From TrEMBL, chains A, B:
This is Endosomal/lysosomal proton channel TMEM175. It is a multi-pass membrane protein. Keywords: Ion channel, Ion transport, Membrane, Potassium, Potassium channel, Potassium transport, Transmembrane, Transmembrane helix, Transport. The gene is TMEM175. It comes from Delphinapterus leucas. GO terms for molecular function: potassium channel activity; proton channel activity. It is found in: Membrane.
Length: 490, 490
């Protein structure tokens, strides 16, 4: 959603392109682009996440063992999944940049955007969009429409949106005869923004800044070094979490059919399964395939709570910088791996001797998905003045609570992993206990944090601002807390 | 998205619950609910749509013929799909109602909502949400928080959110020993709003209105007879279109693996397939599986353009009434069937002798998906004063253009269907020609409509307001068209 969904967006610079376009006429079909952008976000996030399916279905056939060769195959698939996920994310980021420049759309532009979505490498159509939008300047964001350097902008944004696809094309070419180069090129695509950032920094050091400052400040509005628009980051993340949660349902259904007979025309069980799920006769459904549903609910709870942590985090983030965007992408990539975790844990019924590996893989996936969320927050804390709401900064009233929220899953998964090393025979029990315990911890978290803070307040004399994450809580100051949601003028 | 994404929402009554909650404090974790709602919309739409997969996979096994028995099985599956889709939509509608009452959320409520999503029959948790929200009145929408009849509201909304799940549970019970009754009950669930509307109307006729008018006006804000919140309808529809578009990609991948060996551990082709798609070497990919990709692009274009028509339509809709919501649901249900159309057309390579049935099924699906969109518009035109922007009302400058947009797909699919009846041997060619021709028609549509209107203006003397859809066009009146986007005080 690029439309202003919260007041700070309406005021903040990110929403400018869309807020500027909303009191426009719809005659001649000039429209605000927010819904098209939300649709694109959903599409791209789903496409990126669906690529985990080859990995999960590696495990699906019942007769197959979890031996070294499969692990190797699995590893390569996971590498491919991660790379494709990251590349789709790069394409999405380029799309975000593009529509920070193109403020409004008309029908032609909407159709071109659909063509973009269809051929996921944006190569031909993003160029067309840029050309078309600059051909009809009233579609551009007002700031650029009014500017004198439009041609410069045009070549700049063309470079931004074409670099990635061009490299991908080159990689595809190389992949036909020499793989390593194509992998290298794809890695370049993924880390291009950071490469270009460094390159720009070096250029600035050697030959000085390319533009006069006042002008480069204009360019800043769609430069790759500019923070991503927060609401589109949220939309993309929501899409990933939603499709991951749905893949769990898909997997239940796949498992049941693949156990009976792989995709024969007679997989009536799943339509009954569907009915069972939708009529609420959960007892019968659980009776039919108990471990699957236990694993499903466990994994769904994990996805849901990771989304919940992400939601609480971005509720307090004012704008997402480049590094935060990268960390968010990595976190999402591991979230996309959760169907794999589900697959593994639900496979216990068939392959009890693989419990240990499965539980460890699951714990690792959950740990990385959540630790990257925590990393987003710590990165934000480094520039807390511009990135965070006051209430979660060092010493803010929500600071300790946010800290607890974001450390819960890394801690729990790490603990579970450690326990499996000690009590390897109870690994499944440990894992399910973790999955069941964490939600309740979340429910009681505020209470627990309050207790911890009360205890720590007694010891405040001993612990100074050296431990800022637990000091100076201001519980229950709800009256003067209107301010946190309102953005500082940035 | 329950947040105000467009000005008319910020002003209109629908967005009131969320706009009221946005300048609130985040201390004690009281949050605006817009992102949680968008996430729920995405999740529910994906879950509803994914239920088409059992139907599509009926066709997947290559050795199987498209004979009568399969058609029968397919028919029953489609019935099940439609019913589950409609039931999920009912659950989504209840969720919308609920969060028209609950304006703000805190962490507990967010977690309860996640539990709702997990157990898709909302039975236990919606009740919990209602109880909790009324236990903490500051979470309620301000209007209800201030009201004196809170207990009444509570029982009213409890009734609304519990009726459906209770009936589903009863249906599940019956399904264990006697099917027809459960189908009947599920039908009741789907059409409950309309039943209750009629019942309420009758009651009002017999014993007079239950509430004093001033009070029933308050209840109206979350009554089932109140229009759905337009932005949540849009979000739900976007989710459906996005997941359908993605299922097409999934199907490519499924087809390839199922042709090789169904879900064995060695489906490396798809990871290559993925690479092919993501590196842009589309030529190689097409060479590998030509008809699949042709059918994929055709179906993707269809999904995208149906979304485009939906987007243009709702851009001009001010609020969505109950019948429009039902028609939108039916349209979406058929959109969800498009992967089936894709499955059929892409199966030509394997079963050429089924071309005719396949093409006809595809044309029928596209026709119904688009004709229900058209029905939304005609229904809106019946109350155009409150439902439509002035520019698309009878005689509005966009009216003829919108008419053309919404009649394009019904006309094209109907034409294709008719052609297949005449030239049955060229059915595939006809279908693909239709799929290729329509996008270009969309691109040239504005031009074509202008030409048609120019021609009609010459004949205006002959045709009076009896043919309002083509009369009194006001082309190029872009200055005074600011007003259409601003809502009339309703």
């Amino acid at each position: 959603m690029s439309g202003p969904r919260t007041p700070e967006l309406a005021l903040g610079g990110q929403g400018a392109s869309s807020t500027g376009s909303q009191d426009e006429d719809t005659a001649d079909g000039i429209q605000s682009s927010h819904r098209m952008l939300s649709f694109s976000d959903a599409l791209l996030s789903i496409i990126a996440t669906v690529m985990i399916l080859p990995v999960t279905h590696t495990e699906i056939s019942p007769e197959q063992e979890f031996d070294k060769s499969v692990q190797k195959l699995l590893a390569t698939r996971i590498a491919v999944y991660l790379m494709t996920f990251l590349i789709v994310t790069v394409a999405w980021a380029a799309h975000t940049r593009l529509f920070q420049v193109v403020g409004k759309i008309d029908d032609t532009l909407a159709l071109l955007n659909l063509a973009c979505m269809m051929s996921i490498t944006f190569l031909p159509f993003t160029a067309l969009i840029v050309v078309y939008a600059f051909h009809r300047p009233h579609l551009l964001s007002p700031q650029i429409e009014r500017s004198a350097h439009r041609a410069l902008y045009r070549q700049h944004i063309l470079g931004i949106v074409l670099r990635g696809p061009a490299l991908c094309l080159a990689a595809a070419g190389f992949s036909l005869f020499f793989y390593p180069v194509s992998y290298l090129l794809m890695a370049t695509v993924i880390f291009l923004p950071y490469v270009s950032k460094v390159a720009g920094w070096c250029r600035a050091r050697l030959v000085g800044p390319r533009e006069p400052p006042a002008h480069s400040l204009e360019i800043f509005t769609f430069d790759l070094h500019e923070p991503l628009s927060k609401e589109r980051v949220e939309a993309f993340s929501d899409g990933v979490y939603a499709i991951v949660a749905t893949l769990l349902i898909l997997d239940i259904w796949n498992l049941r059919t693949s156990e009976a007979r792989p995709f024969s025309e007679d997989n009536v069980p799943d339509s009954e399964d569907v009915k069972a799920k939708f009529h609420g006769s959960l007892v019968a459904a659980l009776g039919a395939s108990g471990p699957h549903f236990l694993a499903y609910f466990g994994s769904f709870a994990t996805v849901g709570l990771l989304w919940f942590a992400h939601h609480s985090l971005f509720l307090h983030i004012r704008k997402a910088t480049q590094p935060m965007g990268l960390l968010n992408t990595l976190s999402l990539a591991f979230v996309g791996g959760l169907p794999l975790a589900y697959q593994q844990t639900s496979a216990f019924a068939r392959r009890p001797h693989d419990e240990l590996e499965s539980v460890r893989v699951s714990c690792a996936i959950i740990f990385f998905a959540s630790i990257f969320q925590f990393a987003i927050w710590t990165t934000a804390l480094l520039q807390e003045g511009e990135t965070l709401q006051p209430s979660v900064r060092f010493g803010g009233q929500e600071h300790a609570f946010m800290f607890a929220k974001l450390t819960l899953y890394p801690g729990a998964s790490l603990l579970a992993f450690a326990c499996t090393c000690v009590l390897s025979s109870f690994s499944t029990a440990i894992f399910h206990a973790m999955q069941i315990a964490v939600p309740f911890t979340f429910l009681l978290l505020r209470l627990l944090v309050r207790l911890a803070l009360a205890g720590l307040r007694g010891l405040r004399g001993l612990r100074g601002p050296a431990r800022p994450t637990h000091t100076r809580p201001v519980p229950g100051a709800t009256d003067d807390a209107q301010s946190p949601l309102l953005p500082a003028p940035c």
